[in-house]
Design a protein that fits this description.
Largest sheet of chain A: 4 strands, mixed
Strand content of chain A: 5-15%
Shape of chain A: elongated
Number of helices of chain A: 7
CATH class of the largest domain in chain B: Alpha Beta
Number of strands of chain B: 13
Largest sheet of chain B: 5 strands, mixed
Distance between the termini of chain B: 55 Å
Number of helices of chain B: 22
CATH topology of the largest domain in chain B: Rossmann fold
Oligomer: heterodimer
Strand content of chain B: 5-15%
Number of strands of chain A: 4
Helix content of chain B: 40-55%
Shape of chain B: globular
Distance between the termini of chain A: 51 Å
């Protein structure tokens, strides 16, 4: 089935599903690809996946909402993931997060109103040797302080008066 | 591909080795300090100074001392350089020919390095994880060859039994016994699964093994496949480990290309394929039945055992599930003999264990030590104690399922039984050091918040119990709780531990119970007086029904 929108990304996703011979147990792999292509999983996209894999939509929705990695809301243009693993935590990651939240005026899990920055948290990214670590747009940066973190995200925030 | 071909690859690789080898760490820790730029800088410096024929720059896996990264090693001089920048490259390269360099040198004779015994990490920091030739030159795949050509499957199982190896994922179940069960369960289709869903916060051993020496895991899995009669393997890796996934993909591709995975491996009738399955951020998927549900593309919720995966696992077929580190131990055991392995460690805990040392400690990074090494030696001698002269208060092992071991118990040898006796667990190997500034009720609340968020919601004791325990802990930390709240918390701990479906819920109370056991005063100090004037200290002695079963 072609997707009515004509969006090329659906075609890429379809090819990916073919690679798994439409196997239903590839659902998580397919959702990874879908999120990679579209940034997040909207209802329409989940229905498309359900149809392609011949799975009930409820099953697809159930899996998409079960795993933290999948997001059903659009993310900001930039992301900042603060690791709250134990090693980062005992080295002050909570203060780093608080500083970022205060600067961006949003809470963890939220996106700024101008859709520029999403602040997220992670349950250990395995970078404990260089704690506290923060991932800015996919790049892990070691040994963060509240000051260095604020300096890092400042450019992504609207310039105040 | 046969033994001669394997040896030829090894010979060629060894012969191409140049006089000086500069090893640059390209594992995730150092990569985030831009070790890729350092490596590029070193390569450029070698080219520009015309030392191509004498000096080789090699990207290697984890060199252990993550806190001083990027790390660079120079052989055969045996020098380690710390916090190397791309600008340091020219002088560092010149130093191999007698020049001077200002780059900070580490001490390779420091107890941090000297007291390690490397089996799992033997190749880590030495070989190039993205080139199979590099692994083969380090005796790679000789273990698989020995098994396929010289041993019957039951002999391979027997070797693992005699080695005394126990599961490195946390629970410590005897690996050989697991293999024997899968081997003797009838079934046309069987599976071998590698659990690389390293979810414990503070643990990065498995990530480092996958990034530094992926072939050792593949070889271990193939040997397991032969031993139990499986032709298909899966590695379930966390999505949070992109570099580990990439290196595994490369490793699988290379092994297939030269016939070390696939059909008719090493000219034997044995077929074995490995596929990667990427997790999607659910801690509970580290539990084996949840992990299998996830591989099948379902919500990662656990199911009651029995039946155990060994009898009915993936798609109802007999399935062997072992952890990354367990598989990485297999090839050395086959190559060097079960007796050699069994001679290392203690009576009931054999071999070595890799720990990720982190938190308030001077030397953070990876260590591999024989089982039975006293905790004090690990954190004080090797780890260098707490930084800035602070005092160590406790060591947390086992992540959210483990407990806090107080400083006065530091002489405890690290083995499965001793840690369990202290109310903690070996766990997968995360070891977080806490100093005097860490407040234990807050630590307990932190872990409970983790378990609350990660509870899959299938069974009520875990789903509702973790929420209630978190609320009580939050109340305690905020100084709003009474002695009654504390005893309610202790009741809940017992209830959740005994009635939860899987390990997540059963172990969720551990951080609370262990901190209450050793740091009860910290909780009592936070309690509010009861309205009727009953002193908070009444909670000082736990009610008899809450006494921990010893």
């Amino acid at each position: 089935m072609k997707h009515a929108s004509g969006d090329k990304r659906f075609k890429i996703l379809e090819a990916h599903i073919k690679k798994f011979q439409g196997r239903q147990d590839a659902l998580i792999e397919v959702l990874h690809k879908a999120q990679e292509l579209f940034g997040y999983l909207e209802d329409d996209l989940l229905l498309f996946v359900a149809y392609q894999l011949k799975l009930p939509p409820g099953r697809v929705y159930g899996v998409a909402t079960f795993y933290h990695f999948f997001t059903l809301k659009p993310q900001g243009a930039h992301t900042c993931v603060v690791c709250l693993g134990t090693a980062c935590y005992v080295r002050g990651a909570d203060r780093v997060l608080a500083a970022i939240e205060a600067e961006a005026k949003i809470k963890a899990g939220e996106t700024t109103p101008d859709k520029q920055l999403s602040v997220l948290t992670a349950r250990c990214i395995g970078a404990c040797g260089i704690a506290p670590a923060v991932v800015y747009d996919g790049t892990t940066v070691p040994r963060q302080t509240p000051e260095s973190a604020v300096a890092q995200v400042k450019g992504w925030l609207p310039h105040g008066p | 591909m046969d033994l001669d071909d394997l040896n030829a690859i090894a010979e060629k690789e060894r012969a191409s080795r140049k006089k000086t080898v500069i090893r640059c760490c390209t594992a995730a820790g150092c990569m985030s300090s831009h070790s890729d730029a350092v490596k590029a800088g070193l390569e450029k410096a070698v080219r520009e100074s015309g030392l191509d024929d004498r000096v080789e720059v090699r990207g290697v896996g984890c060199m252990r001392l993550c806190c001083q990264g990027p790390l660079v090693g120079v052989d055969p001089a045996g020098i380690i350089y710390e916090r190397v920048t791309p600008e340091d490259a020219p002088s560092l390269v010149a130093s191999t020919e007698g020049g001077a360099t200002q780059v900070r040198r580490g001490d390779p004779n420091h107890p941090f390095f000297r007291k390690q015994l490397s089996i799992v990490l033997a190749n880590s920091g030495e070989i190039d994880p993205e080139r199979i030739e590099s692994y083969i030159a380090a005796d790679g795949y000789l273990g698989l060859h020995a098994v396929l050509i010289e041993m019957a499957p039951k002999d391979a199982v027997d070797s693992v039994i005699r080695s005394g190896l126990r599961g490195r994922g946390g629970a410590g179940y005897p690996t050989g016994l697991k293999w024997a069960t899968v081997a003797k369960t009838p079934g046309a289709q069987k599976y071998v699964v590698c659990n690389a869903d390293e979810g414990d916060p503070g643990a990065f051993m498995d990530r480092s093994v996958l990034e530094s020496d992926p072939h050792s895991v593949l070889e271990g899995m193939a040997i397991a496949g032969y031993a139990v009669g499986a032709s298909q393997g899966f590695i379930y890796v966390r999505a949070e480990y992109p570099l580990a996934i990439k290196r595994l993909q490369i490793a699988i591709k290379q092994a297939k290309q030269i016939g070390l995975l696939g059909s008719g491996i090493l000219e034997s009738p044995f077929n074995f394929n490995v596929d990667i399955r990427i997790g999607a951020g659910a801690y509970v998927c580290g539990e084996e039945t949840a992990l299998m549900a996830s591989i099948e593309g379902k919500r990662g919720t656990p199911r009651p055992r029995p039946p155990f995966p060994a009898e009915s696992g993936l798609w109802g077929c007999p399935t062997l599930i072992n952890n990354v580190e367990t598989f990485a131990n297999i090839a050395p055991i086959i190559r060097r003999g079960a007796e050699w392995y069994a001679a290392i460690g203690t009576g009931k805990s054999k071999g070595t264990k890799v720990f990720a040392l982190a938190g308030k400690i001077a030397n953070t990074g990876l260590i591999e030590v024989p089982m039975g090494t006293p905790l004090r030696q690990i954190v004080e001698e090797m780890g260098g104690g707490a930084p800035d002269g602070a005092k160590i208060k406790a060591v947390q092992t086992g992540g959210p399922s483990g407990g806090c071991i107080p400083a006065h118990e530091l002489d405890t040898p690290v083995d499965y039984e001793s840690l369990t006796r202290l109310g903690s667990i070996m766990g997968s190997g995360g070891m977080i050091v806490m100093d005097e500034s860490t407040r234990m009720p807050e630590v307990a609340r932190y872990f409970m918040e983790f378990c609350m968020d990660e509870s899959c919601g299938k069974c009520i004791p875990c789903r509702a119990g973790t929420v209630q325990m978190h609320r009580l802990l939050d109340k305690i930390v905020k100084r709003e709780a009474t002695a009654g709240d504390l005893s309610k918390l202790e009741d809940l701990c017992e209830m959740v531990r005994h009635t939860s479906l899987c390990g997540l819920g059963q172990n969720a109370p551990n951080p609370v119970v262990s901190t209450l056991r050793f740091f009860r005063n910290e909780y009592l100090e936070l309690l509010r007086q009861e309205p009727d004037g009953e002193p908070a200290a009444a909670a000082g002695a736990a009610p008899a029904r809450n006494k921990e079963a010893s």
